[in-house]
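Suppose a classmate hands you a notebook page containing two proteins, each written out with its sequence and a corresponding row of structure tokens. How would you begin to make sense of it? This section walks through that situation. The first entry is reproduced here exactly as it would appear on such a page.
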Amino acid sequence: MELRPPLPTTTLRNARGLRRDMTDAERKLWRHLRNGGLLGLKFRRQHPMPPYVVDFYCEALKLVVELDGSQHSEAADAERMRYLQSQGMHVLRFWNNDVMMQADAVLETILYFVGARTLTPTPLPAGEGL
């Protein structure tokens, strides 16, 4: 079992506040992701990844799903994306408006990513098997 250092208090407090005050788009997407609603995968909402808190995170796939509203800064988002990718995360970004108006298309994009990551098992070398 991997031991992780404790989360910084400010990051933890920020994550709790964000969970309590989710946007309408975050609530809508969460209804589809929670309780294994997407192919049985476990997603966490407003998950701390110091120094950031990501909107949704699936540990099994190292997948971060971020929703952006009009208040987001392209430079800050790019820095955040670089950091998350440097930590081995895959990041999918969507606009809040896309979730609100085209939730099915957003879910299809996530499903496409999940399928690309899980539906192509690596074949065993010749002579190896069960």
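The notebook's second entry, a different protein, reads as follows.
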Amino acid sequence: MSIPDSAAPIPYRSSRWPARFLIWTGIGHNIVGLLLPHYRKPMIDAVKAGFFNQFGANVARSNSFWFFFAGVNLVLMGKIVDWYLFPTKDDVQPAANEALQRQGQDLKRSKRVLPRLLGTWFLGIGVVGAIAIPRSGFYLMIMQGLALHLA
């Protein structure tokens, strides 16, 4: 059984920059949320009101919650990508760890690759989002998708 072209490994070694790009985009996303009053104020109001069950009936609070939650998810995705490409010695089985040491794997490049589908999803989300909301940060998602394709 042959592997379809879309699932075939890409012949390159990954660097850390796509993961870090995702992490910094998520951090930047939440910084923007803190700077813009229409995201910051509803979140502060919800926290002051006890946070629990403060978002469902209030559209502004719901929007604020999902804005910040999206930023946190971008950071999480970046950490997962980094962990996948560059597992630490505590993350892998001893035999795999010995193999990495024999190969002399450095900290800047990884022989592991990301599935192309991940980059395709980010591109798709970015394009649809940029069309739906032109004055937004969805253009960064397009760049994220390209970065993940080139990782």
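A careful reader of the second entry would note: Helices lie at 17-35, 37-48, 59-85, 94-103, 116-132, 138-150.
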